[in-house]
Amino acid sequence: MTSPFNPQSEIPNPQLLRLFVYGTLKRGFWNHDRFCQGVLAVEDALVRGRLFETSSGIPVLEVPEEDILAVGTTNPLADVATQARVVARMSNPEPTPDRLPKKGTGAPWGPVYGELLTFVDPETRLPAIDLLEGFHPGGPCLYRRVIVLVQAGGAVIPAWLYVVGDRLTGGFRELSGGVWR
């Protein structure tokens, strides 16, 4: 049986939002019930990165810049359309001008574990979660929303996630196991 998330067999759906979560939006944590009602699917998943915890106990993820396939905007429909284009591009991986240049950082990246959430209501979902995460494109942000490849259900698919907005500075404790709580 083919995974429903296999980009080679999937017809991109510009209304389908996939979001990788690694902190308070995961099942069993305080923001899941409030922000994730109506989720279509929840799967265990992982990404490549480094996970940190702030002094207030909130997780922050850093991913390699070369893994970022797109950066979020204030337009949720445009962002899910971008996600659908990335899925389509994976089945025909020709170089495109919107892909970020590859640049190695030398940081010790490892697996970060979380959940892949799938939603059908990006127009209401993304603005609410962006507000929760303090994501304000063009302004100061703790987090920025980006698309990276996520491993879930035996497939590798592009999904949005929130990563640290600027370079990490003091006050962050690295979580070496790649799991928050």
Mean pLDDT: 83
Structural class: alpha+beta
Order of helices and strands: EHEEEHEHEEE
Total of DSSP H or I helical runs spanning 4+ residues: 3
What would you call the shape? globular
Low-confidence stretches: 1-12, 95-103
Strand proportion: 25-35%
Explain what the structure shows.
This protein has 181 residues and is an alpha+beta fold. The protein is built from 3 helices and 8 strands, in the order βαβββαβαβββ. Strands 1, 2, 3, 4, 5, 6, 7 and 8 form an 8-stranded antiparallel β-sheet that branches. It is globular, with a radius of gyration of 15 Å.
Features:
single chain, alpha+beta, 3 helices, 181 residues, globular, 8-stranded antiparallel sheet
Quick summary:
By secondary structure, the chain is an alpha+beta fold. Helix content is 17%, strand content 31%. Strands 1, 2, 3, 4, 5, 6, 7 and 8 form an eight-stranded antiparallel β-sheet that branches.
Task: Outline the secondary-structure elements.
Layout: E1 17-21, H1 32-35, E2 41-53, E3 59-62, E4 70-71, H2 76-90, E5 110-119, H3 122-133, E6 143-152, E7 155-164, E8 173-174
Antiparallel strand pairs: 1-5, 2-3, 2-5, 2-6, 2-8, 4-6, 6-7
